Structure formats: structure tokens, C-alpha cells
Amino acid sequence: MIWPNWAEEEKERARLTLKSAMRSDRNTGFFVSEADIGAFVHFLASEGLEAFFWRLKSFENHDLRGNEFAIEGMQSDIQGMAIAVEHVAVTLGGTATQLLEKFKQLWRDPDVLRILKRGDVAPLARTARLAQDWSALKAKINALRSEPGGQVAADLAMAHRIRGGVHAVLPEDDHFELEALFIGLMRAALLTFVEVRRNDPALKKDPEDIPVD
Prior knowledge:
Blueprint: H1 4-24, H2 34-46, H3 51-65, H4 70-91, H5 99-106, H6 110-116, H7 122-126, H8 134-143, H9 150-164, H10 175-197, H11 201-204
């Protein structure tokens, strides 16, 4: 159970972080309104997906007020957020075994789907040994961003790669890269929610407690 004051504080933290993330990255090709973000945060709270809030709070604590173990804490938070992203996908209706396949079920945008279904993309997300050359793997996934729908597809592919590697140490120790990975996971969850919401009448209805600025 989450205490009401804590819940409102963490919902606001998530809302502001997502607004900032979408404002700083305008190249996804998808318009996300403040109402979309508010609906997503409400969805997390109402569907028992508070782990999303916990991981964000923990990551910020490690990021801004961490000690010599901050990097390890951020790595763990990223892996925990990848699991939270999968829980979001399941709650939205994804039934496949693997996260990448869940994304394929949930996304209808043709550009995003085209990339996710390509034969050269699935191995980037699924093949564990590729993470042994982490820099090369990141470069290949980031190269997708130059294509139509690629900004989103790259986030989704990386989310699956991180989720699939939660039983090993995340091979990233650069502070700024860790921040980018965490924001990418949040963005993957938000954009997947927005994509499903646009096609699901039940999710289109805004709850009364969603603030509209």
C-alpha cells in the first residue's frame, strides 16, 4: 500500500520527469500531450504499477545524491525499470513471452513495426553475447534512430536488451549514458501506452484527477 501523500508526490515526480524527457527529445515522431502523460501516470497508479515510481525515485537518489556505489545503484535501477516496463506492456495487453514480442503486439504504427520485425533488429535485442561488445551494440541500436519510426524502435529494442540481461551486470558505467538508458526506458513505456491509448476507447477516457495545465 502507498500512503496518499507519497503517491501524489511520486506521481508528480514521474509526470515532471516525463514532460522534461519528451520536451528535450522532440525527434520521436510522435506527439505526446500533457494529457497523455497525465493519463499514463494515472494508469501506473491505478493498475498497481508503483514499481515504476519506486525505480524513478531510487534512480534519482543514486544519480543526484549517490555515494561511491552510485553507479552500481543506477545500473540496478535501470534493470529494475526494464522489468517495470514489461509489467506495463503486460497490463496493456501484451501476452507474448518476450518483451520485444509484446511490443510487436501492442504497436500498430507501420514504421515502428517494420523495424521491429526486421531480421537484423531482433538479434540486437535478443542475442545475449552481443552485449559483450556493449559499445558496438549500442551503436547498432542507435543507428536505427535515423530511420522513420527509428527513435521509438531503438528505445523498444534497448528495453528488451536490458530486460533480457537482468541476471548479469549491466555493462555500462558512464554516468550520462546511464541517465540516457533510464530515460529511454521511461519513454518506451510512455509511448507504448500512448500508442495503445489511441486505439483503445477505455484508455482514451481521461480520469477526473488528471491535471490539465
